[in-house]
Amino acid sequence: MHPILARGSRLALYLGAWTLVGMLLAALLAGPGGLTAARSLAISIPLALVYAFFCLSAWYVARSTPLGPTGGVRLIATALTASVISSAAWLVVARGWLELFAEGSRLSPPELFPALRALIFGFGLLLYLLSISVSYLVAAFERSREAERRGLEAQVLAREAELRSLRTQIDPHFLFNTLHSISALTTVDPTAARRMCLLLGDFLRDSLALGSKDRITIVRELQLATQFLEIERVRFGDRLRTDIGVSPTGVWMVPPLLLQPLVENAVTHGVAHVVEGGVIRIAITENGSSLTIDVENPCDPDRPKRTGTGLGLSNVRARLQAIYGDRAGVSAGEADGAWSVRLTLPAEPVLSGPSNSHE
User: Fold this and answer.
1) Whole-structure pTM over 0.85, yes or no?
2) Tens digits of per-residue pLDDT, 138-161?
3) Are residues 136 and 222 in the same domain?
C-alpha cells in the first residue's frame, strides 16, 4: 500500500496540500479562460484533488526505477512518459468536468476548453514531475534510515557478541585458579578441599544461572561475590577478611559477574602476597543517577610488579564500555599499601513487568 494511503492523517495532509495547488491553478485559469475567481476555484480545486490521486502513482514509478541501478536515459524517459500519460489522462478528466460545469452557462465547452487545454496539460506535466522528484527524495530518505537501522543492528549484534566473549573469559580464568587451589589442598587438608569443592559447585550453579542474564540486582551480585570469597576463605582462613558496605536506598541493576573478577584479583594478587593477610573491602554508594563500586585490598609494596592491568580488570573495563559507553568508568591505583578499583556506572532501577533480571 502507498505510504500516504496507509494512514488517514497522511491522506488528509496530502489532500490539504493539493487544495493549495488547486488555488494556484485557479489563479492561472482565471486569465486565459476569462473566468471569475469563484468559477476558477470551482473548476480547479476538484481537478487538483483528482490529480492528487493520479500523482500517487509517481511513488511506484520511482520504486520501479531506482536512482542507483537505473541508467540516466531510462530514468528520464520513464519519468517523462509517466508524466505525459498522467497529464493526458487528467486532461480528459478536465474536459469532462468542464462540460458538466459549463452546462447551463453562457460558456459552452468548445469555447472554454481550448483556452485552458495547454495550461492544464503543462501544469499537470510539471506537477507529476515534481511528484516523481519528491518520491525519489522520500525513497532516498527511506534507504538512509534503513541503512542506519541496519548499522545500529550490526552494532548491537557486535556488542552482544563482544559481551558473550567477555563473559566466557571469566569462567575459565576463575576455574583455573580455584582448581589449582583445590589441588594444593588435597594433600594438606582433604576436608577443606572437599568443602571447597562443594562451595565451588554452589557458586558455579548460581553464576551460570545468573551469568546469562542482562542484569541482576546489586544485592544478588554482592551475594555472588560473597560466595566466591567463602570459597577462598577455605584456603586462606583468618588471613582473608571482608568488609562490605552498601548504602544505596533503591534496588539497582548491574551486569552479572561484574564484581567477581575484581574480588578474585583482590585475593590472588593482594591477600595471597601478604603474610598476615588483610581485609577486602567492598563499598557501594549511590550518587544521584550513578552507582560507585569500590573494591580495595592490601598489597605488598615489595611484590614483583605486574605488567598491564590483568585479565580481570581489563574484562570489567571492556564490558562496561560495551554496555554503557562513556557513561561508565573504571579507575585503579595503589596508595598506602592498598590497591583499589573504582567502578562508576549508571544507576538502573528494576524494570516493572517481565524482565530478564533476577531479584
Assistant:
1) no
2) 888 888 888 888 777 766 666 665
3) no
